[in-house]
Amino acid sequence: MKHPAAIIIHGGAGHVTKYIKENQAAYESGLKTAVMKGYDILLRGGTALDAVETAIISLEDNELFNCARGSALNYEGKVEMDAAVMDGSKRKAGAVSMIRNVRNPISLARKVMEKTNHVYIAGSGALQLALSEKLKLEEDDYFITPHQEEEYRKTHKKESIRTILKKFIGGTVGAVAVDCKGHVASGTSTGGEVNNLPGRVGDSCIIGAGCYANDATCAISCTGDGEFLITGVIANSISKVKELTGCSLQEACDRVIHRDNKGVKGDLGAIALTPGGDMGIAFNSERMHRAWISPDGHLHIKIYKE
Amino acid sequence: MKHPAAIIIHGGAGHVTKYIKENQAAYESGLKTAVMKGYDILLRGGTALDAVETAIISLEDNELFNCARGSALNYEGKVEMDAAVMDGSKRKAGAVSMIRNVRNPISLARKVMEKTNHVYIAGSGALQLALSEKLKLEEDDYFITPHQEEEYRKTHKKESIRTILKKFIGGTVGAVAVDCKGHVASGTSTGGEVNNLPGRVGDSCIIGAGCYANDATCAISCTGDGEFLITGVIANSISKVKELTGCSLQEACDRVIHRDNKGVKGDLGAIALTPGGDMGIAFNSERMHRAWISPDGHLHIKIYKE
């Protein structure tokens, strides 16, 4: 029996800003393009892993989203990117952080998974892998968009080091997919947050926090305030609640985001998918950019709460 | 009612080597000193967090253990250290990776937790925090012991880059404690593995993998092959099994290490403690250096299987 293919993507959770409102049509178009590209892989019999990587590359190449091109600038005015990917059929994962100049960090995370027995490589060690695997590189300028440069100028003037150390940080894209063989995969990619300290690492590259996949339960990608996604170990917690309580995936997402982490003073969002095509989407923020094609083939695109 | 205080520490899981056998008495003495120092804090009414930090500093300062002084040398012949700490009473955490020259990485992880709203800072950004918080620094030579230099010389000659990319990596110290107020905490610190690639990050600094603490369930510190501890999200999985199945903590550790991760071709070890003083210790390797003082006040020191 062929499993019904499905894919969900997100483009970050957080507040509704003027920039997001002004560019709503372009955001929706970017989400649609990415989710359709991923779904197309699945329709042609491709793997969930390929679908996730393809959808995320589409978001990474789109300067509207805070990852790869369009990444936020850190305190030094530079881009540092994190990403992770996990293959639910093998329970293998790859992650990278503090990445510069690699056009698609999600593909580098996949190289860590497939070409090494490491799971997580950071900084210049990861760049060496990108070079030896001949991944596409770009100059610093490629990643820096006028919007993010403007955000950096405004914020950098205003914030002291002490303010930066005390602020919370979000902004991520991600995808989960199930292929026609019933395998799931997940991926997450981020450009961090404007004016953050060099070396700050968020949830996106942390397996169990921002990214997790396991054919025995589900695939999950998270977004929001990375610090709370890490201490809540949100992705693995959703998987464990699903596994150990026998509830639906939507109930597992709701329980972890809205009940177990109810008092948390930060934005939390998650998308999730089982090998059987059951879906879960939950967030506690004003908005989460998201799109999905459900097992019945219907396309949905949403930014705000229902 | 005063809760009974207790503490468990580990000094890494893996194979039994000639070096370990030759230095067995010194290892046992090092474990005893560290666990007694931590317990002393608890007896004097100190916090689980202070006890964990104190025990780990004792192991970090002891050149026999692969963390801080005594760290393995990476492919470039340099020391890179990771550490994490989590306070179960607040569900707050701090983690650092790619650290050089900081005498006690566990204390820097605690500074990330207490002095910033970040959870995880890597590399030079973390060093800047160490400087501003006036943590004790040491020259490169302080961290490099004759034993680790010899291990590096032997291994570096033998291993090609491709071999390194394909090998698994372990070696860690850690502690969990419960204080007389019934709060738990955990900490983990590592020097990586000999000849590993610069930038390779293991489980020790990953909240949910090598370190997790939550007063609602338990505190956990893990050791072994970091890659499998990350993809198995071992620490959080033990906590979730304890929370959601109502089994004992020892049963939760056994289930996650020996059943859920049965097919895994790597060393996995965990120590765990509930606020009520229930203990869990499990490992699938030939040995796990460990010591504990149980709620009845008895001291235990072990290296090999029972």
What does this structure look like?
Two copies of one chain form a homodimer. Chain A has about 300 residues and is of the alpha+beta class. The first copy, chain A, has one domain: Glutamine Phosphoribosylpyrophosphate, subunit 1, domain 1 (4-Layer Sandwich), CATH 3.60.20.30. Chain A has eleven helices and twelve strands. Chain A has helices at about 20, 25-45, 50-60, 105-115, 125-130, 140-145, 145-160, 160-165, 225-230, 235-245, 250-260; strands spanning about 5-15, 80-85, 90-100, 120, 175-180, 185-190, 210-215, 220-225, 270-275, 280-285, 285-295, 300-305. In chain A, a hairpin with a 4-residue loop joins strand 2 and strand 3. In chain A, helix 2 (about 25-45) packs antiparallel against helix 3, helix 3 runs antiparallel to helix 4 and helix 10 (about 235-245) packs across helix 11. The longest helix of chain A has 20 residues, at about 25-45. The model of chain A has no long low-confidence stretch (mean pLDDT about 90). Chains A and B meet through strand 3, strand 4, helix 5, helix 9 and helix 10 of A and strand 3, strand 4, helix 5, helix 9 and helix 10 of B.
